[in-house]
Amino acid sequence: MNKMFLLYQTTNLINGKIYVGIHQTNNLNDGYIGSGVLLKKAIKKYGKENFQIEILAKVDTIDELNKLEREIVNKDFVKRRDTYNMELGGAGGKVWTDEMKKQMSESIKKTYKNGRLPSENTGRKWTEAEKKKKSEMMSGKNNPMYGKNVADYMTPEDNNKRLEKISKSNKGKKRTDEHKKNYSNAASKRIWLIHKSGKITHIQDTSDYRLNHPDWQRGTKWKID
To answer: Is the separation of the CB atoms in 203 and 217 below 8 Å?
Structure first.
């Protein structure tokens, strides 16, 4: 049998979340239902029997297959809360904005400017000075996630776990006046956005694409013209 190039959708029958991917096979009944990182975690959690795979398209070449996946698994699709996809389709990679790429590039250049810092995998421990230098290189606007709402890049489950950890770590701690001031300054720079679906988020990056996207509005309530 000739190799088949398939675009498929795997659906979680428990919560309705989906994963769209591509697969090359000689056997339609090979038992494959997807290999995404979040999908694998979900399969482990809910059991393979609670997932259903559906063939969306069958094409003749891998190029056609990649093109189809790129058209469906785009930035908006990846950022949806009801999908397990983390990367753009058609070998597009993770969702990185141009600004994030630029900031990461600048950070890497600084790291290697005066010679590479020691890796934790070399067996040698970082000195306090090296830790401080590394922290400075990835702090503030040097951090590719600066001004981004980290919850937008996580599943609801993972974000809840993150918030629980933060809550536990802050329990019993007393905020200094400096901490309160820093928090107040950060909060004052937030730009609240609401999606037409009702999803609410906040950003600080004034170059965020959502500020000029028709599916997003400023504020916490959707306003109808």
So the answer is: no
Q: How many CB atoms lie within 10 A of CB 22?
A: 21
Q: For residue range 116-167, what is the model confidence (pLDDT) as tens digits?
A: 444 444 455 667 776 677 666 656 666 655 566 666 656 677 767 777 877 7
Domains for the chain: give ranges and CATH numbers. Answer: 4-94 (3.40.1440.10)
Query: Distance between CA atoms of 96 and 104, rounded to whole angstroms?
Result: 10
pTM as predicted: 0.43
